[in-house]
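Record 1 of the preview.
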Amino acid sequence: MAFLRRLSDALNHAAIAFCVACVIAMLTISFIGFFYMMGTGEALSWTYSLARLFVPWIGMLSITIAFKGGEHVNMNLLLGLVPAALTRAMQWASVGLIGLFALLLLWFGWDFFLGSNQYYMVSDQIRIHGRWVAACIPVSGAVLLVHLADGVRLIEAPPVDLGED
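->
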C-alpha cells in the first residue's frame, strides 16, 4: 500500500506539472499570435488551433488532481445532515463510482485512442495526430485508478466541521 501511495503522489505531482506546462504552452502560443498580429497586422492561422489541443489534457488530468486532493463529489453539507453510518456508505459508494468511472475511461478511452487515425491540420506544416488528444482519456483513467489506492484516506479523513453553533 505504501508503494501505491508513493506512486499516486508521484503521478499527482507529474499531472500538476504537466497541466502547468500545458497552460504555459497555451499562453506562449497565444502571445506569439497576439504579438505577431500587433507587429504585422496579420493573424497567424495556427495559433488558436494549436493552443486548443492542450485543453482536453488539462481538463481530464484536472479530474485526477481534484480527486487526489479530496475535491471530488463529496458534498460536505449533505454528509453533515445524515447519520454517520449513511455518511460512511455514501463515501464508499462515491469512491466505488469513481473507480467505475476510471475503469470506463480506461476501457473505452483505450479503444478510442487505438481507433484515432486522423491528423489535426493545424497548418500546412503542423499536423498533430488525433492520438495526442485521445490519449488523455485512458491516461486519466489509469491515474484515477492509482489514486483509488489513496481513496481510503479520503474516506478516513475527519469530517469537516460545519461550524454549527
